[in-house]
Structures are given as structure tokens and as C-alpha cells.
Amino acid sequence: MAAEDVLWGNGEIEPIVLPEYTISAARSSHDLHSFPLPARIIPGSRLAAAPSIDAALREDPAFSLFRRQGSTSAHPTAQGVSLRNIGPSGASRTLVVLDEVPLNDPFGGWINWSQLPALSLAGAEILHGGAGGLWGNAALGGVLALTSLPPEESSNSIRLQVDTANLRRLDGQQFLHHDTHHLRLNIQTETTDGFHPLAAENRGAVDTTLSRSHRLGQVAWRHPISVDTEATATLRFFDEKRTNGTPLQDNTTRLAHASLTIASRAESANRWKAGLWSQDQEFSSYFSAVAPDRSTEIPSNDQFAVPAQAAGFFAHREFGATGHSATLMGCEGRWVRGETREHFLFREGRFTRLRKAGGAQASLGIFLHHNHMLDTGAVLWAGLRADQWADFDGHLSESERTSGEVLRDDQHPHRTGTALSPTLGVSLPLSGVLRLRAAGYRAFRQPTLNELYRPFRVGTTTTLANPQLRTETLQGIDLGLEFHRPYLQLSAGWFHNRLEDAVGNLTLSREPSSTLRQRQNIPSIHITGGEVAAAWLPLPSLELRAALVLAHARIRSAPADPTLAGRRLAQAPNYSLSLSATWRASAATALSAQLRALGRQFEDEENRLVLDAARTLDMRLDQRLSEPASLFLELQNALDARVPTRRPTSELTSYDQPRTLRGGLSVDW
Length: 669
Prior knowledge:
This protein is an all-beta fold. It has a single domain (about 5-669), classed as Beta Barrel (Maltoporin, Chain A), CATH 2.40.170.20. It contains 4 helices and 40 strands.
């Protein structure tokens, strides 16, 4: 994958603009400028420099997590990815993959961004628009494809970071090789006191900071099997603990991952790749109900174990990639199993009941894509993917902890279904620098095990599960115009998506002391909007970037609650803006700044709780001290803006990170 970046030579500053490709997101070697859907490329250097991987991805204003809060402080279950406001929720409606292996949580669909060593990443490709034709389940809004550096292209590195929130972080990478064997070792440890999510005037005796700590280890090995074939094996282990704002509320995650990939090495017209992967995870989370004056808290739920396993395979081959046409065909499968085990109903100083809920899912997909270049230079695209899915072993049981009496024992029937995901597109050059693109697509998402089977309670609101949830589907069209010169790139696009049967939490009843909700399908949501972006090099030493996404997301119909018709989609800002500037003052010094602005959005489907518009400014200095060593200073949220992230009631609002000074030292050799 070539980076959308500028390389700066030593001495005189001479920019070299690299060609751009979407190898991972398109599952093939297509020129980005001939692809019918828009894509944004974030180079690995920016992923490694950011406080977290998702913080770097926010350079693309189409990218957002469920709430405005980043992964460094958000609860893991609130880290679902959305592109272009395609139904923001804890479960991602965007597929996230690393080297074609899904990272979406097996039980709930969210993403744990801390599990990845940023030093090992080559970059990220964010493909906007329904990518179900290539990737299948969960790629409603698009796909976010992360790629790893080959072990043999990695450097030895040590990076130390601290900040004013008492952050202490160590990243280490070691490259070893013997004969044709290449090995990369990555470790990462991090601990921080975090920050208070509530304003000082709203805190009480029970309020604490959002602290966290984690440990990460990864081993990647690559070895050529033959002249034109190589194998890559990866093992990753991750352990994290977080606190969630009060003494009782915390969560832990433990994860083990293994994958093996075999692929062709030669730059031939018939490339192929195949892989196997597995994941084993354990998650736990403790919840409490806080008194109105925030002086005390009472336990409300102890989700003491959520074991989840996943495994899968993929295989695809590309034919004729060096000619005027290319064909990609492949298949992949995935199996997941998970169960929540939790204690609830706190009475007389103890939890009195036990709940177990979960099940398993399996899917198998085959896909075929073909593109053909005409004599005029236009590229026509057509593809079709067919998926067969199954939900089985669904169950929900509740029992008294003392007596063991079974109060509920639901066994849900086996369900199967199919989904077809077609894609049609064209990339039409209007001149040597101007290109028109158009695409139409269909994509789907199967509800997660968490949505199907697990009821939960937060504060005074109880949300029921729904094992009868239908598959979400999205139909969309995308039009765009792009202008490309070596030092100037401009693009503008329009999109319209119709999301059907979206899973949402709908209110069944509301009392002064309690609210009852249930996960239900919302028949129709329309998301219409536009994107504009610009990248300009007015001087060899100065890079300017701007991107704006406008997305009008509204519920069109909801028979279960007719009052929702015409309402704005929850957690969907009406605009998102990113402005950045990078100035290479000398061969050793660089200054950069990024401004992000988010429009007003709502906490809830009823649009009663408003989260105001917000702006943040980040500033950074990078200084090379010697050939191997460099340091950086970064002022995050330099203007100390209040960025509202959550508003559970009209009287209480949580905020994102305040002004924070971060610094670090890195040595690469």
C-alpha cells in the first residue's frame, strides 16, 4: 500500500508525491483514482504518532465512534465505528479488518483499538460507501482496512511517552532475521490516570477519573515457502483494565489472536491470498446506579464474564491484473460464539440473580468482481457477493443465586438466511486531471449476539433484547468528481443511503422512576449528504488539508413508535470538519496543527437531549535530535474546549478530554 503522504529528503526539501492504491480495502491492486468509491488513506507514520489509532483516523471527518469520546477514555462497548453517520451505535456498521482479519468484537461488534501495536502498521485505508459486495457482513458504511508492515521492512524502535494526565507509555519493536526467516516482536505497556468526564460543578463524592492500563505483545513471522509464495504467522496477546468514572464501575478485556496467511509474492497478473485466523476473548464490566447528588452509588449489574470465540478463513485470487481487465473471485467464512454471564437485581447488600445469555453465528460468503477499461480510459466495475448466515444456540436463562431456582429459560430457534450484495460502478476520466465516478451498492449487517440475546440496565433505563431482530440492509448511490495534480487534489461527492431494519433502542414505556426500552428494527432511515476534500502543497515545505462531511440522517418510518418519524438519528452530527497544516521548517523540525469541528447532535432517538456543536485544536512539534533519536511535544485540545460526549439526563453532561500536554522520545535504528 502506498501512502497518501509526502516524503521529505535530507538537506533541500523536495516533495515526492507517491502514487496511491487501495490494495487492502479493494482486496486487489487497483489504482485509487480509477476506483468508483471514495477512499481516504492514513499512512502508518500518522497512526504511530497519534495518541491512539482512532485519533489518527479522525483525520477523515466521515469516521466516528459511537460517541464523540475517543478510545483512550470510552467504555469498550461504545467504540463502534460509523462512516457518514450510517446508524451510529455500539455495534459497528463499518467493518474493520487488519490484514483482512475482522477486528469487530465477536459478541458485540465494537472495536478495541488499544489491542493493536501502532508501530507495526503500514497504514489504514478508509473506503466510504457500502462495501458489502467485497466484504459481506457489517460493511454497511464501508470498510476500514488496516495493513501491517512486512516484518522485513520493520525497524527497531523504542518510544516513551508521558502527559499531564500521568500517562506512562512504552512502545518497543525488535526485528530479527536469520537466512530467509524474518521475525518482528512488539510490546506495549500503558497506564494513565485519565481525566474527569464531568464538569467540576457536577461532580460528587463518588466521581473519579477515567483511568486505564494495558499490556500488549505481538509476534509476526514471515518466511518464503517457494520462489513466488510466502507465509506470514501472527500471534497477539492483550490485557486491559479501565475504570469508568466511579469506584465501583470498571471493565477488563483479555484477548488472544492467531492468524496464518499464505500469499503469492510475484507481481504477476494472477495474484492470490489465503488465510486462517482465530480469536479468544474474555470481557467483564461492573455497573452501578449513582445517587442524584452523586454522593453514593449502588451496584446494579456485575457482568463478571463474557467469553467469546471467533474463527474464520478467506481465500481470493485476481486474474489479469496487468491488462485492461481484471477479475477477483474468492470466498470466506466466519464463526463466532459468545455468552454474557452476569449477576443482577441488587438487594440487601448482594446480587440475588444470575443471568446467562448468548449464542453462536456462522456465515459463508462467495464473491466475484470484474473491472474493464475501455479505450476511452473509462473503467467499468461490476460485482456480486452472496452470503449464507445462521444464528443458533440462542438462549437466555435467569435463576435465583441462593436457591438455584430457574426463573426463565428461553431457547431460541435456529435461524438462517441469505444476503446478496451487488455493486456497480464507473470511473470516467473527463480530462487528464479530472475524473467522474459513480457507484451503486447494497450491503447488510446481521445483528450481533449482544443485540439479539442480552438485556441490560443503565441507571433507571432497562433495555430488553430481541431474538427476532431482522437483518439490516443498506442501498446506496455515490457520485463524485475529482481533480488531481501533483501538488493539488480536490474532490467533491454526493451520496444517498437508505438503511432498512436498522437496530435501535425504542422506548416502550416511561415512568418518573424508570424507562423500559427494547431493541427493535427501525423500518427506514435515510442518510443523504456530501463530502468535499482538498490537499494542497503551496510550498515544498507546507502541506494543507481540508475535508468536510455533511450528512442529513433522519428516521423515515418507525411503526413501533410513530413519534420518531422525521427525527434526527441519535449520535449523528449534521456536519464534521477537519482542517490541518504541516510545515517542515527544516530537515529536522516539523510543526503541525489540526482543527476538528462537529455539528450539533442528539443523545437519544426522541431528540430530547442535545449535544452542542464542538471544536478542538491540536498542535504538535516534531524535532529530530540525531540520526536515530527524535522527540515530540503535542498540545491536545489546545483551547481547552468542552466537547460534550454523553448526556444521560437533561441535568448531566459528560465531556471529552480537556487540554493535555503530551510528549515523547523515540529511538529508531
